[in-house]
TrEMBL record:
SUPFAM superfamilies: ArfGap/RecO-like zinc finger, PH domain-like. Residues 6-127 form the Arf-GAP domain. Residues 129-229, 251-352 form the PH domain. Keywords: Metal-binding, Zinc, Zinc-finger. PROSITE patterns: ARFGAP, PH_DOMAIN. This is Arf-GAP with dual PH domain-containing protein 1-like isoform X2. It comes from Limulus polyphemus (Atlantic horseshoe crab). Pfam families: ArfGap (PF01412), PH (PF00169). SMART domains: ArfGap, PH. InterPro entries: Arf-GAP_dual-PH_domain, ARFGAP/RecO, ArfGAP_dom, ArfGAP_dom_sf, PH-like_dom_sf, PH1_ADAP, PH2_ADAP, PH_domain. Signal peptide: none annotated.
Amino acid sequence: MAEINRRTLVQLLKLPEHLYCADCGAEGPKWASYNIGIFICTECAACHRNLGSHISKVKSVFMDNWDLAQVQMMKDMGNDKAKEKYQVHVPLCYKRPCPTDVQVLKEQWIQAKYLRQEFILPEKPIYLKGFMEGYLWKRGKENEKFHLRKFVLNESDDSLRYYVKENKEPKLVMKVSELNAVFCPMKVDHANAMQITFVKDGTTRNIFVYADDGKDIVNWYMAIRSAKLNQMQIAFPESDPNEVAKHLTPEFLKEGWLRKKGPRSGDTYRLRWLTLDNRRLMYLTNPLDPYPKGEIFIGYKENGFSVDKYILDVKQVGFGFILETPERSFIFSSDSEEEQKEWIEVLQKIMNQPLTVQDKNTAIIVQKRHTFSSQFHALKV
């Protein structure tokens, strides 16, 4: 009987709705929650176990024994029906996790669906209410320590504020419509960490925060996305909301350590952390620096932008590539040929895309900063 049940499950896995994990979309799920009736991947199975067996009962399709009633539940429900039941009212601003997303986003998606059942009832969760306040641990600009700070998001005036002292004026006011938010657990070495970026005085400002509870940081992330979506729908009323939602908090296209050569012929290579945020390439001394040392706008190929391999001198070890802009050339070196190839490909992909109106505004900001920086260095000399 056990072998017959397993063969039935294997046949169920071949159905189109079961080729991918019910929660994150990973290909080839090999686990299942038999009381919910869904097939899931290994990572999501671990999240289901953390819910407790009173919420989700998890088994391996191939390694565990199944009885007839459990198999029947999988036949009766399945991924599609479960989606119809548990995802009725998922807000447009809610970022549904994909296989490559961070663990906290997957965990909270699973908890929201099956533990809190947020998307079954049409009640507004806290992140949709247009106003949110609470405390996050924020990394200091002048030191590496994290301090507990009060944050207040107010959609009505397009602001995200944080306070050092509650009875004082806010330390910083950011426009929600002009900021980006990405999870960054590896950088901060905390599972619930987030990086907020925005332009301040002509340069990118990075703020790093984390929450003690995963639910809190995801709520802040979704509140930012909700406010941005509503602002963009007001600014562009004829745009497709589904398309707008795809671009609310874009992930960095690529990040990593490279060696960067200085602009003069005798300059050496220095190790820099590079972050590619759409068309803005930032290089920093440390990944957690509040400001980049410099920024490069990646424009359209027909306007004088290109990237290609670069032959390093005999004293330099690594794999080089040169980024050409109308202002100057930038030479970088990676530790591996694979990394060199990845950087060249992602930069070429951007250069092949014509500029949008928003891209042109970004170019003006970055070029102004570049001009000011050049003048500043000239004065120092």
